[in-house]
Amino acid sequence: MGWNSWDCYGAAVTEDIVRANADFMAKHLKEYGWEYVVVDIQWYEPGATSHEYRRFARLETDKFGRLIPAANRFPSAADGKGFKPLADYVHSLGLKFGIHIMRGIPRQAVYDDLPIEGTKFKAGDAARFNSICYWNPDMYGVEDNEAGRAYYASILKLYASWGVDFIKCDDICRELPREEAELLMLAFAISECGRDIVLSLSPGPALLEKAELYKETANMWRITDDFWDDWRLLYAMFERAEKWSIHAGAGHYPDADMLPIGPIRQNESKKNRTKFTKDEQITMMTLWSIMRSPLMIGGDMTRFDDFTMGLVTNEGILKMLRNSRHAHKVWQKNIDETEFILWTAASAEGGLYAALFNTGDAKASCDLSLSDLEVYVPVTVTELWSGTSKEAENMLKCELPSHGAAAFYIK
Amino acid sequence: MGWNSWDCYGAAVTEDIVRANADFMAKHLKEYGWEYVVVDIQWYEPGATSHEYRRFARLETDKFGRLIPAANRFPSAADGKGFKPLADYVHSLGLKFGIHIMRGIPRQAVYDDLPIEGTKFKAGDAARFNSICYWNPDMYGVEDNEAGRAYYASILKLYASWGVDFIKCDDICRELPREEAELLMLAFAISECGRDIVLSLSPGPALLEKAELYKETANMWRITDDFWDDWRLLYAMFERAEKWSIHAGAGHYPDADMLPIGPIRQNESKKNRTKFTKDEQITMMTLWSIMRSPLMIGGDMTRFDDFTMGLVTNEGILKMLRNSRHAHKVWQKNIDETEFILWTAASAEGGLYAALFNTGDAKASCDLSLSDLEVYVPVTVTELWSGTSKEAENMLKCELPSHGAAAFYIK
Amino acid sequence: MGWNSWDCYGAAVTEDIVRANADFMAKHLKEYGWEYVVVDIQWYEPGATSHEYRRFARLETDKFGRLIPAANRFPSAADGKGFKPLADYVHSLGLKFGIHIMRGIPRQAVYDDLPIEGTKFKAGDAARFNSICYWNPDMYGVEDNEAGRAYYASILKLYASWGVDFIKCDDICRELPREEAELLMLAFAISECGRDIVLSLSPGPALLEKAELYKETANMWRITDDFWDDWRLLYAMFERAEKWSIHAGAGHYPDADMLPIGPIRQNESKKNRTKFTKDEQITMMTLWSIMRSPLMIGGDMTRFDDFTMGLVTNEGILKMLRNSRHAHKVWQKNIDETEFILWTAASAEGGLYAALFNTGDAKASCDLSLSDLEVYVPVTVTELWSGTSKEAENMLKCELPSHGAAAFYIK
Amino acid sequence: MGWNSWDCYGAAVTEDIVRANADFMAKHLKEYGWEYVVVDIQWYEPGATSHEYRRFARLETDKFGRLIPAANRFPSAADGKGFKPLADYVHSLGLKFGIHIMRGIPRQAVYDDLPIEGTKFKAGDAARFNSICYWNPDMYGVEDNEAGRAYYASILKLYASWGVDFIKCDDICRELPREEAELLMLAFAISECGRDIVLSLSPGPALLEKAELYKETANMWRITDDFWDDWRLLYAMFERAEKWSIHAGAGHYPDADMLPIGPIRQNESKKNRTKFTKDEQITMMTLWSIMRSPLMIGGDMTRFDDFTMGLVTNEGILKMLRNSRHAHKVWQKNIDETEFILWTAASAEGGLYAALFNTGDAKASCDLSLSDLEVYVPVTVTELWSGTSKEAENMLKCELPSHGAAAFYIK
Question: A129 and D111 in contact by Cβ < 8 A?
């Protein structure tokens, strides 16, 4: 559970924004379990101003070709201090600090002919000339050789010295099996760096047939391409969630991507807000929580309204996120021409969870048979968003708005 | 849970064999929950003697083109009594009676120009000339028209009058979406026939994208082509089970096919026995039970040895079959060059199940971390095949023979 | 070059229609090289009245299960005389006689349990229960066994005795490689029957990768599904022609299907005429002739108008059909937003042919560079449809109506 | 018809080798029509020594980022004179001069931040960061924008000033449709550069569905990946030739790649010679000539033996290359268990060509029916390799060694 700068500031986030959001999280959200503050892509690009990348922009690196924060955007990083001051600050708030990296080594370091730290190699010895990212110009992929391994060790050494707790590595998750060797190099470098660092893989969709590899190397992996505030993307997540749900477990989680809630796309206009309806946001939080997707806030928290604060501080929902086990879809069917989807999960505390979604275009009712959940005795049912409880036997009458959801704890 | 004649007698089973197995089940297995006695394919073919089908064999039908038991093989069916006497006998033992049918209408009825019972239609009005089964010569598919629906109603009327409790319909499960209309006609005819009849669909592999349709129309559906006593087929079932596990629920179960245990292929030689090793049979029973596959015995029960009786009367395993919920694979990985697979499930009574499989070619050990099961407190672990219990914390040391399994109840 | 009854009368053609068209051909077209008179599908179905097939209609067969003409439609076939009287009549006009057959053996013969002529086999020994035609209910495919070969020998013996010169075998051309054995059996039976019989394979599209097999077994094979009077089908033929053109040679020709010209679909209404414009018909005749497709007239010749007669009696075009060698497309490109296609061929008499097509939606001009035809010297150019000649050097100015064509002989 | 340095010297050819081969060609081969002398890849890489490319090697460019010859390998290019002195020398011999280029702009020019000649643009404005070659590290693809077009104009201006007559552009032929815009930019730049320059596209296999585009933009295009002296590659060429044969015409030719004959791979060892047998070389020359593939000698001509000289100076074969029209395969079939392939073509002088190939593993005989070539009259048949003529009617008896060929002119 944390916050990531991409949805609200793209490649253009600055230190003051990060600090303000960290302050806010510490003060208002830490008690609910929110913990990670993550700086997304191109913190090393002095001229980044949007969600786009500048053509062949000159990047900040140290003398070993390792990317370092652009001091015009992250003033505390001046004089080669890197992210250490900012990470220290975040840690002082009782939070954790994360960064985004691209798979690979800067192309610029190759043409600058820079050495790899602590070795006799040059960047060109580690770079693979024909391994590139299709949507970002910064890096070459890294060879599975001594130079390549030394490069990955050198950047992890730097990140550990800064106090990084979380790495979101991009251009790698859906690039398997081609880039499998590079994933293994990265995971090995993290395990050897001397600091506990969470590894998050991006972008999706991840490959289902590589599920075991993701579990063994990473803590979370994106099951989708970039997710934004569009119902079609949210609806499509149900199918992805269904395929991936059985792969969530201790320390490894399929990742449905950040929550585009509250003020997003702030680099375009301060007036931008999520286009999701309130019901769609409830659907999103319900699905993410029952399937145990990592929750990363995408909006600028400092200007959250009450509804949005309610979304991320509902104790029943956050408890479901922690205690849900073995979540999966029960059925998906049309009832009186409206499509409903039912999910269920066991609770680690006993009892079970159920989530019902109306994915149709109008408000609709559904008589939910408890036998569909294999409940054959009288139970107490608590709806988590409303907090209301009632006794039930055989049947649960539900009415849901279009694109809305209900989440039940049943015992 | 039941018995089916295919694995031991193919298309050649006779009434005395069915009666003897029903007697045996009633006496020795009923108390463990075994209940269904099912006569498999071509009970209407007087000359059937093997697992093969005779070229354009003349079949027994009534005057409405409905297939009826060959009286030379099922003497009690003489004089048009059909399976009623045999079903009555099975019921008298406190068991249930099932039959196999092929999708469609006999081709022979079309060329004999027979009427459809209770209608002005002829068989030719219901038959689709270009819908055939690729491995059996008996039937044409049925049109989705008034004649077709009348034909399905007419056969269900007959089966209900016989007292049939279970229908295994063949040439339909993997034929979707082409034959979807015929599945819907059949399911409708069953729902209207006035008797509770379980519907089992064959052969597999079923189509994952049609999971919701199987759940809505049938009680069980084959997730595999015919399963026999070959380790490669058993090993392949793990992947199928993984894909289908989330679709098991109240009244609808992915079906991993019959259990080829004990004396099978008896029509070829009375000496034939399953080629599975004992450990492979334990692996099979463990996987089928945790994933909640229907259990249908394939061998001739009357000559089961003690080991085989033990397989089908282990109370812990059968309890797991009943109480397992939300089963799924946890991981599949090589440990010291031996592949292990771990499954887990919640128990409806609280606590959880775990099944560990050694799919490698040699005996091997595995230190099973309880955190992989998200168990972080001291627990009591009962191994169900041996019945032994012990306290455990953090780690469970396991040693498994090649192709062997252990099943744990943890609380 | 011939006439086929399908386009004008479907499955419902009768003897008087065949005789009238044969008379017309003998009198008006024979001198131009038109020669074959072919009775298309279901001449053995007494109740055939359209282009559709009746459900499980009872067919006429002899006592060996061989299909024979329905005497109500072909009176001269009464008393078991088969097509001999009609073939004799066609021969008496100096023409040749052909029939359509379906791959396989009548399903009805299997259920009637009929013997195969001259053998101890029954129809059921030759039939393959799972080989059917998807669009016609009459036949089962034939096994590649002794019974199957005897069946094919028996029907060829019958057809040879009738005096058949041409067999169009259906449900076989695009069914390779699955039905390859049956094609070889048929070709062998023809070669052994003691009479020269042209073999035409249908329906298309034929498989390009089987070109060598078609050449070795048949005289012509359909490169397209049924062709009708629709510009989209005609336009699509250019691509098929391009792929197949190099496979035309002595005695083996890719077949672009019948010419739907003049009165067609006469079983629906006597007023029906081809929907092709005159220019489209010229395009069709030009393409078929330069690529050397067999020409089979589809319309009722007895009521051809002058334009249609002109189409099939243009001596320059028919000479191109006979003398064209190595035809192929030269280019296909947009000139001032109109697409033109240029084909060329050598002439067996020296000189070369060129055909230019305007496939655009409006009249348009094209300056045809003779160097595109690798002509670098002054030449005489004769346009075959108009019969006009002129001297040319370097360039040929052409103006073509929409969907129109010009055909040139250049020397 | 020409010579190319790749097969014998890879990326490591030097000026003296080019001059020696040009001298040889002028003296011994020019009279037979051999004309082009082409310097293949990486003439701008000072350290190139083999068929491999060095990791991120520093390349020679002018101040506008245009690649120029490495003066250590091409001494006459010193002082910015480029290939002009070498081209002048080749021209002085009555021959033509060609070079190899890679699609795109040097990556190095982007990171050196060089301007595009005559514009305000930088290399980075023309480069596409995500368009690379998979097997060579030198270039980025070029954007279809003003900067990109200016870059292509700038290099063509340079090449025209050098006197280049032939450009082999690599990494483009099989990269369609993705790189179609770049092909169009290049073709346009050539047409505007003020000099006649032949455009050859590499590597193959070209895309058949783009045949019209190749014809409109280029003079020759590779129908195969790199071709070397291996029978399997030669055998595979028959199928490619069959597909492409109809697309050979005035000024545009499918290219079966260079002829690996005589001394090849000379950068590895001066002792290396082609591994093709003599018969295989005859097969190659026969197929290339009848299908009209461009002929580019791959071996070092200065050390050709008599057999090899005979291969490239056979007047009958070279005449077939010039006069063959509409070549295509006639058939490919097994005769007494040996596969033979027959090709034919019209001759621009009248008469026809035929080529017969024995692709089997042993010497074998074939009675070639002249009717297969649609020759029905007595003819004179000249075998071009032996120069012998004889009269023939109906049949031509041929005996061919394994992997051997005969080429006939028939009139």
Answer: no
User: Could you tell me which of D59, D19, D55, D26 has the C-alpha nearest to residue D41?
Assistant: D59
User: Tell me, what DSSP letter sits at residue A398?
Assistant: E
Radius of gyration over alpha carbons of chain B, in Å? 22
Give the C-alpha separation, A285 to A357, whole Å.
Answer: 12
Chains D and B touch (3+ CB pairs under 8 A): no
Cα D59 to Cα A128, C108, D101, D107, distances in angstroms: 18, 79, 13, 10
CA–CA separation, C277 vs C256, rounded Å? 19
Q: Cα separation of A117 and A115, whole Å?
A: 6
Beta carbons of B279 and B404 less than 8 angstroms apart: yes
Question: Mind telling me how many Å the CA of A252 is from chain B's nearest CA?
Answer: 10
Residue of A nearest to D132 (CA): A130
Helices (H), A315-405: 315-323
> How far is Cα D316 from Cα D327, in angstroms, rounded to an integer?
16
Tokens standing for C225?
A: 């599904």
Q: Enter the DSSP assignment of D356.
A: E
Residues A174 and A204 sit within 8 Å (Cβ to Cβ): yes
Q: D13: distance to nearest CA of chain C, Å?
A: 37
Question: Looking at chain B, which subunits does it touch, using at least 3 CB pairs closer than 8 Å as the criterion?
Answer: A, C
DSSP-derived letter for residue D58 is: -
pLDDT per residue rounded down to tens, chain A (411 residues): 999 999 999 999 999 999 999 999 999 999 999 999 999 999 999 999 888 999 999 999 999 999 999 999 999 999 999 999 999 999 999 999 999 999 999 999 999 999 999 999 999 999 999 999 999 999 999 999 999 999 999 999 999 999 999 999 999 999 999 999 999 999 999 999 999 999 999 999 999 999 999 999 999 999 999 999 999 999 999 999 999 999 999 899 999 999 999 999 999 999 999 999 999 999 999 999 999 999 999 999 999 999 999 999 999 999 999 999 999 999 999 999 999 999 999 999 999 999 999 999 999 999 999 999 999 999 999 999 999 999 999 999 999 999 999 999 999
d(CA A307, CA A312) in angstroms, rounded, equals 9
Give the chain B residue nearest C134 (alpha carbons): B130
Q: What is the CA radius of gyration of chain C?
A: 22
Half-sphere exposure of D139 (CA within 13 A, CB side): 23
Read off φ and ψ for residue C286, nearest 5 degrees: -70, -50
Tokens of C270: 């006597």
Decide if the complex's ipTM is over 0.85.
Answer: yes
- CB nearest to D56's CB, from A55, A124, A135: A124
Distance (Å, rounded) from C-alpha D23 to C-alpha A401? 86
Q: Which residues of B touch A327 (CB under 8 A)?
A: 326
Handedness of CA B59, B61, B63, B66 (dihedral sign): negative
- CA nearest to D214 within chain C: C331
Instruction: Compare CB distances from A108 to D55, D111, D132 and report the shortest one's residue.
Output: D111
Chains A and B touch (3+ CB pairs under 8 A): yes
The three-point CA angle B36-B38-B39 to 5° equals 165
Q: Copy the structure tokens of residue D167.
A: 């450009």
> Which candidate from D250, D327, D329 shows the least CB-CB separation from C374?
D250
Nearest-by-CA chain A residue for D134 = A130
pTM of whole model > 0.80?
Answer: yes
D160 CA: distance to closest CA in chain A (Å):
30
Q: Cis bond leading into D177, ω under 30°?
A: yes
Judging contacts by C-beta atoms under 8 Å, the chain D residues touching residue C333 are 212, 216
Report residue D125 as tokens: 């404005």
Contacts of D78 (CB under 8 A, 6+ apart): D71
Contacts of C370 in chain D (CB under 8 A): none
What stretches of D269-402 adopt beta strand conformation (E)? 296-297, 324-335, 338-347, 352-358, 364-369, 379-383, 389-392, 395-400
